[in-house]
User: Which sequence fits this backbone?
């Protein structure tokens, strides 16, 4: 059997909203405005990004805005009537967004949970709940009209919060819209009160659930949810992120806090190689085989403005290899009836413009572009009219030779000193473990798929430092290093990260340019590249899943084909070569979500990629609670339950993401983490959002790169402990049919329960259960397991498999064993 098998859960699952905030560049680190010699228009792509608050009607509009090239992939919050977020735009693009139906919000316009009681609930009236359908002998029991999915209590910075998620079977009703009212008590034995109307959430046209998050002075024991259609239910309140063991940083003598600021890829990779040299007994470097594009570009210029007479010219050589030395000049000669020609002297290209019989200039932009491509003696690789122009305008002489540039010689204000190496780049992976021979479970931490996300890289490096510095002195760290095989990709997008550090702070994608002529001029250069987290094979935009764009200038451009990029090929190579990798964390920022599968859906009908079996979902939730408890231990940052779960439910559809591929193709437990989420500010009573590059030092209680690095490193260290325990787990799960076998009058509702996260395979037809038998499933996504209504005598046969692959009672489902579990429910009429 494989090491990972489907498993099951028996507690309510988490909610939907994503609270992310788009970054502003750190002080003194705004992009400079490079000057492109030969272009008569300002390079608008280099204008400083203005962050405007926007309101979208829903996922369909989000997809259209992203496909049009707007950078709104982060900073999104689901609100009852759409999606709020921030966009990186200039003044001209604001008008374009408005024309697409996007609403520009005022400074203080932000969705907040209402504290107003009732909210008009009773005005909607009520009607009786629908009767239950008559079941067959064994069917899934028709769920109650209203169900509490989860009710969580947590505290942070001295304030208590209650998060509730509930679902009604009539949630799709829109005329009138079903309302849900929430009440809570104030502790055991106290009455319900403080009625609030819950917010109804719809995504891609599909009803999700109702929910609420609000502040309370005292922890409630129970809640009551009432539907305007007549349903009512109660539920117990659980604690969120409480009672966890202390983090490793509390151990006497434990060393942490090694990172003193943001690190560009050269610093990250240099330190990784140094660690491998310093600690050869527990560390080594694995060099990934697929070289990246590198921090390099062809040299370019746009000559003649932006009209029909404009020509875009690109060098054959990379800028640092001679392209930056090329000049192009358009020359008028005296005389009449002269043909178009090109003269080359060294790196100087002179276009000799044609004249007609009357001595008038006669060369169009299209003709000049063709001549440059064929007659420049290999100096010009690409020449074409500007964007979508036909190039019918007549070219006029330039006043002087125009120098081509790769625009990589400009430095952003505040960028670190030192030149960036040019040429193709090799990504090193820092591998840490006492036994690096495949015997231990591998854990892959992949940081900085997205270039502008600087905190994930420092977080990952901080974990490396903690491992090697504490290995000999801290027993728990020693166990991690001895019992796991850790692979740290400190920056999976070094080219884009360098561009973010040195040229354009908001760079998201890599530096591979797949754009054709219409988008290949240098004014588009900050929009080139592939979103590496849209370039994988499962749930891809190429297969119709939402969230990946086919537009090469879009922030979520998925690439020309699956795995088109060396960076994504490298990750596939790594997990195929090291098949012991069983856990994976793709670390991003900013938003404070921790999520897993499903990560994408087809928008029409909101058809998601396959959801994990209920047992896997349980293991994810269990692991998330441990990881996030360690984050909270540093400075009380709470990743709220609404921000945990399947990423397509928590955040949005992200077609072709790495987590989906790793889980479904290789059976790797694959997490995605948006670090740097909102922090409750007791001084203002609000949640304060993070950014891609927050100031490194700041208010330690609120947003800073240093604090985020430390707290999320706590979480990654806990993930290592989870993997180590998973590898040592030999304990077999147990399971029960509840209320169990026996004699019942009329009918009875039964369900399965397990002693730990585990998947149950069962039969009711008298056959022996196997891995091909029906699998116990959730009632609904993010809910507990099914409830079966039994109306005739039935024998259930089943077995359970836990997260580590241990099978209950040692049963072998592939052979003819009989030591499976069995219970007979006898119905007396």
Assistant:
């Amino acid at each position: 059997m494989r090491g990972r098998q489907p498993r099951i859960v028996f507690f309510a699952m988490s909610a939907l909203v994503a609270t992310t905030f788009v970054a502003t560049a750190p002080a003194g680190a705004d992009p400079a405005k490079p000057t492109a010699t030969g272009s008569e228009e300002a390079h608008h792509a280099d204008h400083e990004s203005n962050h405007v608050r926007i309101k979208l009607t829903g996922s369909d509009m989000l997809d259209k805005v992203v496909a049009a090239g707007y950078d709104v992939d982060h900073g999104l919050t689901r609100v009852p009537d759409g999606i709020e977020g921030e966009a990186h735009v200039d003044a001209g693009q604001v008008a374009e967004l408005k024309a697409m139906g996007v609403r520009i919000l005022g400074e203080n316009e932000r969705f907040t949970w209402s504290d107003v009681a009732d909210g008009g609930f009773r005005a909607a009236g009520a009607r009786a709940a629908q009767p239950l359908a008559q079941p067959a002998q064994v069917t899934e029991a028709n769920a109650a009209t209203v169900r509490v999915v989860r009710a969580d209590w947590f505290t942070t910075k001295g304030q208590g919060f209650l998060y509730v998620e509930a679902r009604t079977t009539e949630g799709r009703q829109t005329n009138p819209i079903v309302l849900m009212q929430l009440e809570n008590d104030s502790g055991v034995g106290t009455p319900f009160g403080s009625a609030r109307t819950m917010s109804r959430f719809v995504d891609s046209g599909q009803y999700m659930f109702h929910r609420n998050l609000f502040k309370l002075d005292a922890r409630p024991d129970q809640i009551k949810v009432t539907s305007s259609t007549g349903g009512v239910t109660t539920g117990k309140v659980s604690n969120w992120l409480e009672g966890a063991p202390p983090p490793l940083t509390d151990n006497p003598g434990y060393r942490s806090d090694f990172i003193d600021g943001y690190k560009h890829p050269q610093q990250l990779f240099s330190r990784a190689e140094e660690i491998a040299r310093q600690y050869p007994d527990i560390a080594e470097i694995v060099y990934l085989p697929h070289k990246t594009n590198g921090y390099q570009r062809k040299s370019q210029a746009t000559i003649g403005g932006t009209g029909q007479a404009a020509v875009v010219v690109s060098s054959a050589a990379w800028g640092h290899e001679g392209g930056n030395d090329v000049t192009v000049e358009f020359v008028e000669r005296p005389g009449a009836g002269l043909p178009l020609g090109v003269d080359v002297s060294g790196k100087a290209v002179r276009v000799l413009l044609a004249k007609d019989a009357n001595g008038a200039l006669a060369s169009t932009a299209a003709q000049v572009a063709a001549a440059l491509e064929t007659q420049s003696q290999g100096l010009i690789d690409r020449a074409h009219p500007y964007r979508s122009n036909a190039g019918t305008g007549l070219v006029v002489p330039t006043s002087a030779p125009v120098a081509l540039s790769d625009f990589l010689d400009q430095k952003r204000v505040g960028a670190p000193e030192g030149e960036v190496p040019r040429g193709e780049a090799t990504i090193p992976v820092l591998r840490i473990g006492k036994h690096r021979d495949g015997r231990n479970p591998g854990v892959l931490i992949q940081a900085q798929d997205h270039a502008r996300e600087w905190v994930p890289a420092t977080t990952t490096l901080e974990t490396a430092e903690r491992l090697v510095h504490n290995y000999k002195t801290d027993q728990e760290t020693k166990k991690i290093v001895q019992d796991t095989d850790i692979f740290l990709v400190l920056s999976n997008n070094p080219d884009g990260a360098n561009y973010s550090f040195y040229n354009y702070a908001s760079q998201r994608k890599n530096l591979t340019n797949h754009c054709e002529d219409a988008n290949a001029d240098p004014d588009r250069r900050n929009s080139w590249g592939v979103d590496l987290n849209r370039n994988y094979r499962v749930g891809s935009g190429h297969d119709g899943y939402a969230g990946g764009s086919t537009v090469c200038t879009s922030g979520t451009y998925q690439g020309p084909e699956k795995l088109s990029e060396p960076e994504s090929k490298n990750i596939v190579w790594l997990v195929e070569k090291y098949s012991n990798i069983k856990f994976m964390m793709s670390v991003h920022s900013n938003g404070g979500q921790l999520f897993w599968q499903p990560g994408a859906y087809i928008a029409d009908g909101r058809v998601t990629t396959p959801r994990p079996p209920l047992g896997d979902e349980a293991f994810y939730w269990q692991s998330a609670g441990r990881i996030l408890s360690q984050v909270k231990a540093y400075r009380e940052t709470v990743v709220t339950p609404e921000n945990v779960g399947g990423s397509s439910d928590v955040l949005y559809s992200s077609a072709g993401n790495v987590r989906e591929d790793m889980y479904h193709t290789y059976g790797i437990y694959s997490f995605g983490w948006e670090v740097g989420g909102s922090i409750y500010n007791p001084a203002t009573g609000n949640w304060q959002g993070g950014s891609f590059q927050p100031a490194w030092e700041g208010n330690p209680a609120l947003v800073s790169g240093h604090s985020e690095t430390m707290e999320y490193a706590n979480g990654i260290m806990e993930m290592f402990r989870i993997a180590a325990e998973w590898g040592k787990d030999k304990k077999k799960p147990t399971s029960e049919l509840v209320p169990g076998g026996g004699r019942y009058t009329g009918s009875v509702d039964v369900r399965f329960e397990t002693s730990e996260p585990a998947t149950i395979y069962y039969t009711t037809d008298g056959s022996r259960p196997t891995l091909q038998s029906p699998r116990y499933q959730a009632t609904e996504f993010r809910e507990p397991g099914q409830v079966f209504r039994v109306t005739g005598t039935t024998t259930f046969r089943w077995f359970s498999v836990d997260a580590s692959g241990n099978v209950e009672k040692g049963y072998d489902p592939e052979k003819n064993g009989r030591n499976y579990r069995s219970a007979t429910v006898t119905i007396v009429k």
The chain has four domains: 122-239, 248-293+414-728, 298-403, 735-828. The first helix runs from residue 59 to 67. The longest strand covers residues 146-156. The chain has a mean pLDDT of 88.
